[in-house]
Amino acid sequence: MTLNPDSRPLVGRQILICRPPGQDRPLAEHLRALGAEIVAYAGMQITACEHSPATQDHLKRLNEYQWAIFISANAVEFGLLAALKMGAWPRETRCAAIGKASALKLEQAGLGPILRPETSDDSEGLLCSDAFQSLVNQRILIFRGQGGREVLAEGLRKNGASVDYAEVYKREAPTADPGELRGRIQSGQISAICAMSSETLHNVIEVFGLECFPGLCSTPWLVPHPKIAVAARQAGIQNVIESPGSDLQALSSALINFFRSYKS
Fold first, then answer.
1. pLDDT value for 152
2. What's the distance, CA 80 to chain centroid?
3. Would the CATH topology of 14-44+174-261 be identical to that of 47-172?
4. Whole-model pTM above 0.70?
5. Rounded to an integer, what distance in angstroms lies between the CA atom of residue 10 and that of residue 13?
6. Residue/partner pairs of 109-115 with CB below 8 Å, 24 or more apart
7. Rounded to 5 degrees, what are φ and ψ at 152?
8. What residues are paired with 15 via a beta bridge?
9. Alpha-carbon distance 60 to 74, whole Å?
10. By the 8 A CB rule, do 172 and 149 touch?
C-alpha cells in the first residue's frame, strides 16, 4: 500500500501551542496526526473566580432572562457549573454562543438549539443575527470572564435590550518559566507558534523576555481572528498566519497552506 505524501504534511515541523493547560489537547492531537511535533506552553491560566454579589443575583434570576450568551468555551464550562448549582436551566431562557466549541458544549448539555453568529464568529457576527435586531423588553445575560470587550453589550443595548454580566472565570498570566523553549525559539527550531487570543500573544512575548523577542518576531504565529492578527503585527510579528476560524480543520489548513507557500 502506497502512503499518500499529503497525509502527513506537517512532518518536520515543531509547533508551539500556547493554550491553557488541558485546552491544548485537541489541537495537539490533530496536528500530531498530520505529522507535527508538538511543544506546549500555557500562555494563559484560566480559573474560576469568586462571583460578585451582582453575578450571584443574576444567576438566581436566570429565568427572568430571555437570552443567555456565552462568549467562549470557558464561559460555558464555568458558567453552566455556576448556573446549574442554582437549579435546572430554565426552559424560557434561550442560549447563544460565540464559537463552534462553545455551541457544541451547550448542545451536549442539552440546551439546544444554540444561536451562533451567521457571519464572523465573534461579537460583531452575533450582533448581525436576526434574533438580536429588535430587543425591546428583552433581558440578556452574558456569561464571560472578568473584564473583556464591551462591543456585544453595547450593541444589544442599542437594539433595546437590558444586558447584565455573569463573570464566572478569570484569566491570569502564565507563571511557568519557558526554560529550554527560549533556546528553541532563538535557534529557529520552532516552526510556528499558535496563540488563540491577543492576551496570550502578549503574555508569551513578556514571559519569554527581551532576549527572545527577535526570535519570536521572526517565527510565524498562527491566530484565529483578524483582530488577533492585527495585534500580532503591531507587536512586531513578521509572519502572521490568519486562520478563517478557530476549529481544528481551519487552523490546520491555514498552517499547511502557509508552509506550502512560505519561502524561508
1. 95
2. 18
3. yes
4. yes
5. 6
6. 109/76, 109/80
7. -65, -50
8. 38, 192
9. 20
10. no
Cβ atoms of 115 and 94 within 8 Å: the answer is yes
Instruction: Tell me the three state secondary structure of residue 96.
Output: strand
Question: Is the pLDDT assigned to residue 44 strictly greater than 90?
Answer: yes
Q: Among candidates 162, 216, 218, 200, which has minimal Cα distance to 21? A: 200
Q: What are the extents of the domains in the chain?
A: 14-44+174-261, 47-172
pLDDT at 116 over 80: yes
Tell me the pLDDT band of 7, cut-offs 50, 70 and 90: confident
Let me know: does 9 contact 259? Beta carbons within 8 Å.
yes
Q: List the grid coordinates of 206.
A: 513578556
Instruction: Compute the distance between CA of residue 106 and CA of residue 262 in angstroms, rounded to an integer.
Output: 38
User: What DSSP line would sit under 49-77, residue for residue?
Assistant: -PPPHHHHHHHHTGGG-SEEEE-SHHHHH
Q: Can you tell me whether residue 239 is helix, strand or coil?
A: coil
Residue pair 66/41 in contact by the 8 Å Cβ criterion? no
- Topology of domain 14-44+174-261 in CATH is Rossmann fold (3.40.50)
Task: Name which of 63, 40, 54 is nearest 200 in CA terms.
Answer: 40
Which whole number is the average pLDDT over 60-70? 97
Query: At the top level of CATH, which class does the domain 47-172 belong to?
Result: alpha beta
Do residues 132 and 156 lie in contact, with contact meaning Cβ atoms separated by under 8 Å? yes
